[in-house]
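Researcher: Let's try something more involved. This one mixes different molecule types, so please make sure each is placed in the same coordinate frame as the others.
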Amino acid sequence: MNPDDIKYHREHAWVRVEGKHATIGITDFAQQQLGDIVYVDLPEADTEVDADSELCEIESTKATSPVVSPVSGTVHEVNDDLADSPEIINEDPYGNGWIAVITMSDPSEVNDLMSRDEYEKFLKEEEER
Amino acid sequence: MPTRLTIIGAGPGGYVAAIRAAQKGAQVTVVEESEVGGTCLNRGCIPTKTLIASTEALEHVRNSAAFGVELTGEVRYNLNRIRERKDKVVETQIKGIRALFKNRGITLIPGKGSLLSKDVVRSVQKDGTTQDIRSDRIIIATGSRPARIAGFAFDGESVMTSDDAVQLKNVPKHLLIIGAGVIGCEFAFIYSSLGAAVTIVELMPRALSTEDEDLSLIIERELKKAKISLVTSTSVTAIGRTADGAVTADLSNGNKIKADAVLVSIGRSLNTEHLRLEDAGLTAGKRGEISVNDKMETAIPGIYAVGDVTGNLMLAHVASRQGIVAAENALGGDVRMDYASVPAGIFTRPEIGSVGLREHQARERGIEVKIGKFPYRALGKAHASGEITGLFKIIADAATDRVLGVHICGARASDLVHEGALAIRMGTTARQLGNMVHAHPTFAEGMGEAAEDVHGSAIHMPGERMER
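Model: All components are placed in one shared frame. Result:
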């Protein structure tokens, strides 16, 4: 079930905003597409990242895929639990499977992201294509 | 009367040259100051691969649950047994070479060889006994040794070269490795598996900087997965010692690293200083190398040089081939060295096999290329074996479609690369390679798919746009 208190990016990432901090993860759809996740190449703290660009890479048994950051800013914190247990993303993509917290440089970027309903509609359209 | 051929050094260059020359009827004498087999057999290729086999076994056992094999006891290793196994493997191989020598009637003289003139080799034994060997032809194959940094106090235990690290006297809690080349990376995985925290400091911007960049990226990530820390574009400016016996290293980026031991793996120095080359009319180059042409002839007729001393590709199998070329030519043949299709293996986890042009080399030379890639994780065999990390990469000439380079990182890469070596040697095109049937289920299927991918036609890749 996709939560409605977060915003969604078309590259299947999500953000949960608290003040100027945005927690980032990948969506349930993304983890299903990837299959069993075997490694998360976690970003380093203080790394700068631009919206719509690669934050880090995830390796699954099927593919190596970039995680795209929905917002611009600086990496404030990373989820170290993923280093030894990357499968947490498969189990709980919207909770314990969060990847990083970004200190946003332009919080208005969040306005460009999709709501849950918009994202689900987007997924349906993608599927039909 | 048979040709009297004297070879200085019984490493993979010298001993192979000796056997080939004996096969061709020469009267062969080999002067060797330590043991037959050289660095490769005594301190390099073979002992390290033996250690790697032990650490691979250890890793397999640690991951056994993933294969449905449950262990009920504690998993631990026995350092003495690992060392004993290594020594036994080396000893068996040494006996093998000695037996081949005996079988071929090759005379092995223990001693340090040097040139008295262009046709006399002097052997000096440890007890001072000398023997002068009159020779019609001479092959110099004295090899190389680990390069040392001046001012570092090498003691074989806390400040080591690869000669010491391979002895595996103990496993330091924290090992600092200077140099992320082939030797540094191989030892990083070995010591890490045995429980050492490993930090590698590398002067260049990436690990394994002579390999194709895509392969460096994979190994850098695998180092990360193994929790081996890699610091690139950084040098070690000084090494010190603390009162409690630890080693400290000052880095060019201002940081300081404290470790229990340091392994210096920054390259190799050539063993030519004690050869008295000038007495035979030869001079060594800036790095101590002996210049040769593609027939392995030096500037002095009748004297040949092979292996690391030539300052060329420092690989055991190159030395061996050069040894064969030198022996053939010394006995009236006309054989030449060809380096374009020489494959090389790096035994990291996973391993690397590479041959021919790297992508950046093709770019530097202005050659327009097409590139095919195929990931291990798209192979059924890789999943069945639990070895999904890796990549096949084929570089083909855009104009002729001929294969120019093959770079593989993944399980069995060092064996798989030989298909690429053959393709380069025979002038095979990527299309021909892709059209060749590769058996299923094997890792080699990745070669066929990567060759197909040069033209966008790999079967097991999503979203490929095929050339029509």
